[in-house]
Design brief:
CATH architecture of the largest domain: Alpha-Beta Barrel
Structural class: alpha/beta
Radius of gyration: 41 Å
Number of domains: 3
GO molecular function: cyclic-guanylate-specific phosphodiesterase activity
CATH class of the largest domain: Alpha Beta
Bound molecules: ligand C2E, calcium ion
Number of strands: 22
Pfam family, one: GGDEF
Organism: Vibrio rumoiensis 1S-45
InterPro entries: Cyclic-di-GMP_PDE-like, EAL_dom, EAL_sf, GAF, GAF-like_dom_sf, GGDEF_dom, Nucleotide_cyclase, Rev_trsase/Diguanyl_cyclase
Distance between the termini: 117 Å
Strand content: 15-25%
CATH topology of the largest domain: TIM Barrel
Protein name: Diguanylate cyclase
């Protein structure tokens, strides 16, 4: 006979894995108070009753997992089917219970109550058994019903917990605004799927933040919804769409034939671009959503879903940073980015391990051939990557926020060195140190004050330093940089415009900013004797310098010929490998400071 009272999902072994911990204490307690060898919580299904929890004690013949086949003679089966408590004082003396299988193991007395699941169906029983005739008084039966309710409460709690975790899982797998499956769902689906060839297209709304800031949060969310709906509408049957963020989604395309994955992806990408070439209408506004698509392929299960997703994400970023709207994952580019990332990770330990140091390159007067100063150039000897040059690490330091502390250290170190030279070796009193300043440093509100403070602290005459800015740095935040320049100029600090000729080479910048020195970029100096255009440009800058009362430095002088040519053109100062490459502090001192003192 099938037992309609047990819930259909009843499976004693499954639920026994997650039994509430209090149940063992409950059966132990009741066995002790009732002074019986066995107190049990039983779970049943249509075939048998199973011991879920059994009181501890040497005299207890029931063990967790023991099963009794369903029969009408079974005490617990009776309780479960009637839904009522059952009290058997002595089965041997009661005809209806004389075939009860528990008699065989000596259990003749029984008291049991039904336990209900939260949905009202019978879950099982809670019972006590004894070897001798027993009358279980009301104290015991009341205690049993009280503890029975506590067992039912813990079942309800367990049920609610289960529902809650299912809800959380659902929320994790579906995005509430777009109702689209999320990345975790994709991961779950494809990590367990036997796919052959897979393509992921990573689509990003590259103006999402601007759009959100201009439309407001609410309309931006509405737009997100439309954005997803539009993509969903043109999706081929073998592709799935997943939500990544409010501005990003992925399309996963699965194919059996791998001969034209790229062609298919390109076709889909051009469909998407065509779709978003039309503005989206929203609340009487029409909004253009520019998208960038990154793409990666896995032929014959070459990559796992997670690896492929990472590659498509990187491809999208690679594309966006190079202004492309469709970009296929490029492993070399990724290697480079990875290297940059790893270098960036080294900054904090580099400071701690004092891996940075300064090199100095002499600056020569074209008139007297004497050294008038030097340019401080930062170097990084890293424990992991060895020598790293500033052209590589300065832009990375700017991006990751390490430039300002590094810039401060460079200024401090250059001033410390200059202070030492001035104090101990007293070179030419006009000797100066030129320090390169990055645009990031100029964005600090207190930049000028900080430099002036540092000069005071080291007791250094402000005219003994020259700060080199590029034109790009001047323009990065024109008003703020102008205020810094004016403060610095007022304090007596000299300012140079570096790499002149490569950027805007604007006359108005030379006029508007308080600039003292212009450094002609080395690319023109290299070609001075080779290219008519370079020599015209150098001549032009030199005559402009005379006109605006600026001093001109030519950098990148590598030969006697170029040096003579610059002297002929009446250039003021020169710098280059012809005299020396940038060198360490001690070598520079030996070569230029001590010699200068002797003279
Ligand atoms: P820059 O400011 O234009 O510095 C001149 C660069 O040209 C230096 O390269 C120098 O070693 C090199 N150079 C000098 N004479 C010659 C020559 O005759 N031939 C050739 N081929 N090269 C010559 P370095 O030290 O590798 O620096 C590269 C760039 O990195 C610098 O260009 C500057 O933009 C940046 N940098 C270097 N040190 C610092 C620093 O302390 N702070 C900041 N913010 N940037 C720095
Ligand atoms: Ca420079
Ligand atoms: Ca330069």
């Amino acid at each position: 006979m099938t037992n309609k009272f047990f819930s259909s999902s009843a499976n004693a072994t499954d639920s026994s894995n997650t039994l509430p911990p209090l149940w063992q204490d409950i059966v132990d307690l009741v066995a002790e108070i009732a002074q019986v060898p066995a107190a049990l919580i039983m779970r049943g299904d249509s075939k048998c009753m199973e011991v879920l929890v059994s009181s501890r004690g040497d005299d207890n013949p029931y063990h967790v997992g023991d099963k009794e086949p369903i029969s009408d003679d079974l005490y617990c089966h009776h309780v479960a089917t009637t839904g009522l408590p059952l009290h058997v004082r002595n089965a041997l003396q009661q005809d209806e219970w004389k075939n009860n299988p528990d008699i065989k193991i000596g259990m003749v007395a029984y008291y049991g109550i039904p336990i209900h699941s939260p949905n009202g169906e019978c879950y099982g029983t809670f019972c006590i058994l004894d070897r001798k005739e027993r009358y279980f008084d009301s104290k015991i039966t009341q205690l049993m019903s009280l503890l029975g309710r506590s067992i039912e409460t813990s079942l309800t709690l367990q049920d609610e917990n289960q529902k809650l975790s299912q809800e959380i899982q659902q929320r994790d797998h579906y995005h509430s605004l777009t109702n689209l499956p999320t990345q975790s769902q994709a991961q779950h689906a494809y990590e367990n799927k036997d796919y052959r060839h897979l393509t992921i297209l990573f689509i990003r709304n590259i103006q999402a933040y601007d759009i959100r800031d201009n439309l407001g949060l609410l309309d931006a969310q509405r737009l997100t919804k439309v954005f997803y709906q539009q993509v969903k509408a043109i999706l081929p049957s073998n592709a799935d769409i997943y939500y990544i963020s409010n501005s990003e989604m992925i399309l996963v395309q699965e194919t059996q034939k791998g001969d034209d994955l790229q062609g298919e992806a390109e076709q889909l990408a051009s469909q998407l671009h065509a779709l978003f070439s039309h503005p989206i209408a929203l609340n009487k506004k029409s909004i253009t959503v520019p998208i960038s698509i990154g793409c990666a392929f896995s032929y014959d299960k070459e990559f796992s879903f997670s690896e492929l997703l990472d590659m498509a994400t990187v491809a999208c970023t690679q594309g966006t940073s190079t202004g492309k709207t469709f970009h296929i994952f490029n492993p070399e580019q990724q290697e480079k980015r990875k290297h940059y990332y790893e270098v960036t990770q080294q900054f904090s330990s580099a400071f701690a391990n004092s891996e940075f140091y300064l090199n100095y390159q002499p600056i020569i007067s074209a008139l007297t051939d004497e050294v008038v100063g030097c340019e401080a150039l930062v170097r990084w000897k890293n424990a992991k990557f060895g020598m790293i040059y500033p052209d590589e690490f300065i832009p990375l330091a700017e991006q990751c926020g390490a430039m300002n502390p590094l810039g401060d250290w460079i200024i401090d170190e250059a001033l410390r060195c200059l202070h030492g030279w001035q104090k101990e070796q007293q070179p030419n009193p006009d000797f100066y140190v030129s320090i390169n300043i990055s645009s990031t440093q100029l964005c600090q509100d207190d930049f000028a004050d900080k430099v002036i403070g540092k000069l005071k602290a080291q007791n250094i005459n402000p005219s003994s330093i020259l700060l080199e800015f590029t034109e790009t740095a001047l323009l990065s935040n024109e008003a703020q940089v102008m205020s810094h320049c004016q403060k610095l100029a007022k304090a007596g600090v000299k300012i140079a415009l570096d790499d002149f000729g490569t950027g805007f080479s604007s006359l108005s910048h030379l006029h508007d900013f308080p600039i003292d020195v212009v450094k002609i970029d080395k690319s023109f100096i290299f070609n001075l004797n080779k290219s008519q255009k370079s020599s015209q440009l150098v001549k032009g800058i030199l005559s402009l310098g005379k006109l605006l009362d600026l001093q001109i430095v030519a950098e990148g002088v590598e030969s006697q010929d170029v040096c003579s040519h610059l002297q002929f053109l009446k250039c003021d100062f020169m710098q280059g490998y012809y005299w020396n490459r940038p060198m360490g502090q001690t070598e520079f001192e030996k070569k230029y400071i001590i010699t200068a003192k002797k003279k």
